[in-house]
Amino acid sequence: MGTLYLVRHGQASFGADNYDNLSPLGHQQSIRLGEYFKGKGLRFDAVLTGTLTRQQQTFKGICEGMGTDQPRCMPLDWPGLNEYDSEAVIAAIHPHKLEKPDTPELYRHHFRLLRDGLTQWMNGVVSPQGMPSYREFQQGVTSALTHVRTQCEGNVLMVSSGGPISTAVGHILGTTPETTIELNMRIRNSAVTEFVFNPKRHTLITFNTLPHLDAPEHASWITHA
Asked: Which residue segments constitute the domains of the chain, with CATH numbers given?
């Protein structure tokens, strides 16, 4: 029996030329999560991370916050935990370049298109350029879950993104693609989702929690993009 802690990366650089970097707040969120883990006396027996910069930066921030209690094991890079390419998903249904989402309406427009594109990709209607099929994407996520279930014990940390985490939850609960997308859109930066696992199965315990940001002074640190 063990516990798997799935962590979404901290706030990235939405709207910037390169999204795949944590913002200054994203770094703070990651460090604060590590401090929370340290305060709870958590030690991790295994670590898996995606290979994207924002995911690995988040893991480093967690280690910084945990200090001397940081994981002593080397993280296992798992490309199947990488996020889908949101720009490619949108381009598959909207070939014209989008304006920078720097107003509330443009921000909402961006995510309306993303929902539509994800729905079509997950149902096999479109094939975004440079991306795997959704079935292949799922297999990348479920292979990580299988590794944890069959090869790990104790506390396991997995640092990923909203798409893979919602896919993992959807896989465990047997949700429809539409429900999986809704889960994806709700996951907050640096949020923690917990599974308990044994060699036969994973069971969802918590979803999208922010215990490290519960204090009033951290209310402004809660972000989604």
From this structure: 2-83+138-221 (3.40.50.1240), 85-130 (no CATH)
